[in-house]
Structure formats: C-alpha cells, structure tokens
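Look over this today:
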Amino acid sequence: MNLSETQEQILDAAMEVIVRDGLDSTSMRAVAEEADVSLGLLSYHFDGKENLVVAAFQRAADQLIEHTSSRITEAGSDPRSRIRAALHSWFDPEFSDLEHLEIWAAIWAVGRTNDDVAAAERDLYERNADLLRDAIADADPSLSPDVVSRRVTDVIALQNGLWINWNRWADREALERGLGRCEAIALED
C-alpha cells in the first residue's frame, strides 16, 4: 500500500484512537483531532470509519510482513536461520507490547463482523504462511507440500498463542521454550 505522509499520519492516529477509546468509541472526528487534520481532509482520504479501520489494519499487517521479510533476508541463506528469524520477528519490540496486543484484539473482534477486515486479516495470515512455507521447504526440500502446509499451520497457531502470552505476561522463559517448540515443529526430522 503506497501511502502519502498525510495518510500515514491519519492511520497512526486511527490506531492511537482505537487503542485509547476502543473501536466503538472511535469516530472520524476523534481521529481527525488526533492526527491534527481537518475532518474534511480525513474524509477526502478515507471514506468513512469502516474504510479507515480497514486501511489502518492493512497498514499494520503490511508493516509486520515487511519486518518479517526483512528479518528473514538479514538471516542470510541458511534455511534454519531464516526460519528462526521469521519466528522471532513477531517478538521484536516494535511489534510486541500491550499497545499492539490491544490493536490486534480490536482488529480480530472487528474481523468477526466486517468482511473487509476479515479478508485483510486472512491476507496477513496467508502472507505470513507463505514466508514460513518457503523457509520450511528450503530447509528440507524432500518434504511434500502437504507436510509443509501442516507444519506452517501448527507453527502459526503456536506462534499466535505465544505472542498473546508474551504481550500479557512477558515471561521470557515461556517465550523461549515456545519458540523452541515452533522451531522443532518447523524443522522436524
């Protein structure tokens, strides 16, 4: 998603308002005030609250995927290092704190009743799964696509639970143990 500086400012403000006030209390006016833009300018860029929420979620998803992709690239060519980088990227400070937990909880809730948010959430899942699928298949090219897909599903389920647990309790030992289990699932022999 190519965004102007103003659109980024607005989407950042939208996330701030969603976290601070809750989704039901989020309004276009509150977002405009937080972003320090006129309601007219906000409405020019985003046609209604629903459109704004979907765009904010898509931006958050894009940032997470870009971060994970970057971490995988930085890990070099070793497939096992690439898997570890993908798994650990979710727990980097810029994506792992109570504010992010609140944002994602709000998005998950909206996705249950909003088809556009649900589709964006599904797209995030698929893009993350693709990154892991490629890393696992590279680590063991003899695996069938079905086995790789099952491992990806299991790893993502565990990773999601770890992420929630980490953001709620910050239990480093549990996180490291869980990430070790994710790696073991991804790299089973």
